[in-house]
Amino acid sequence: MSSNIQLLHVESRSNQPAMLRLSRSPFFKMGSRYMLLCFFLLVSFPAYCQTNIDSDREKEFLKLFDKEVQNRAFAIRSMSGIAEKAEKEGDKIFYDSWVEFETFLQKKYKPFADKHGLSQEARGTAKAQAFFGELASDILPKRKFYKSMLNQTKAYLEKLKKLPGYADEEDVEFAHFVVAQEAVQIKAIEFRIKGKNQEAADLFADFINNNK
What we know:
Radius of gyration: 33 Å
Number of helices: 9
Helix content: over 70%
Shape: elongated
Largest sheet: none
Mean pLDDT: 83
């Protein structure tokens, strides 16, 4: 009788579903933990990567925007200095309108510069650029000076075009504005080279009126 009971017990174990027996195996439990870990990594890794991408984008935005803020600090110092020395009517029209343009940009940039903790005060590099910019306008032939300014502004615009791609949703519209104002400068310089000072002044004025 005892042997019959043992036989039935063995048979009952052998008849258990394979998955049930496997689930009780220590190897299965280890495998389950490993699968859970893999699942957790698969779920969390994209979020981790996205966080890093967002952080890198923010750093690139701040780096490029800080450069632009300092560029504007250089420009308003340089153009103000040149405007003060302008004697010819055409020169006064052109440079006075550019100073007004830069003054407008300072106001537009301020909320975003403050938001990102960037000072609009000219640092050493911007001050040096302003000094040498004024000096170049004094000693270089006018056409050569503006051609050089035009080429530099065009090259800088290509770098500045990356700004909207680095910006978050709150800053992207402003970033496009930053790119647009640089493009306006290129057109204004082109007018200046052609001797069309009033057209350049009107271009600056229109941009200001359309973006108040």
